[in-house]
Amino acid sequence: MSDTAETGWIKPALRSRNLMLGLILTLVFVGAALLSYLWTPFDVTKMNIPDKLQTPTGEHWFGTDHFGRDIFSMIMVGARTSIAVALVAVTIGMVLGVPLGLWAAARSGSLMDEIIMRGNDLVFAFPALLIAILITAIFGPSALNAIIAIGIFNIPVFARLTRGAALSLWTRDYVMSARVSGKGAVRISTEHILPNILNLLIVQGTIQFSLGILAEAGLSYVGLGAQPPIPSWGRMLADSQTMISFAPHLALFPGFAILFTVLGLNLMGDGLRDLFDPRLRRARG
Amino acid sequence: MNLLTIRDLTLSIHGTEILRDVDLSVDAGQIVGIIGESGSGKSMTAFSIMQLLPRGSVTTGSITLNGIELLNADEDTMCGLRGNDIGMVFQEPMTALNPVKTIGSQVAETILIHGSGSRAEAKARARDVLNRVGLPEAQFPLSRYPHELSGGQRQRVVIAMAIALRPKLLIADEPTTALDVTTQAQILDLLRRLVREDDMGLIMITHDLAVVSDMADEIVIMKDGVVVETGAAKTLFREMNHPYTRALFEASSHVPDRDGAGDGTQLLRVQGVSRDYRMPRKTVFGAVPVFRAVDNVSFTVERGESLGLVGESGCGKSTLTRAILGLEEVQEGAIEIEGEPVFSDHHVNLNVRRKMQVVFQDPYGSFNPRWKVRRLVGEPFHLLEKAPEDPRSRVDEALVSVGLEASDADKYIHEFSGGQRQRIAIARALILRPELIILDEAVSALDVSIRAQILDLLADLSDRLGLTYLFISHDLSVVRSITDRVLVMRAGKIVEQGATEDVFENPQHAYTKTLIAAAPRLPDAISA
Question: Whole-prediction pTM value?
Answer without folding.
Answer: 0.80
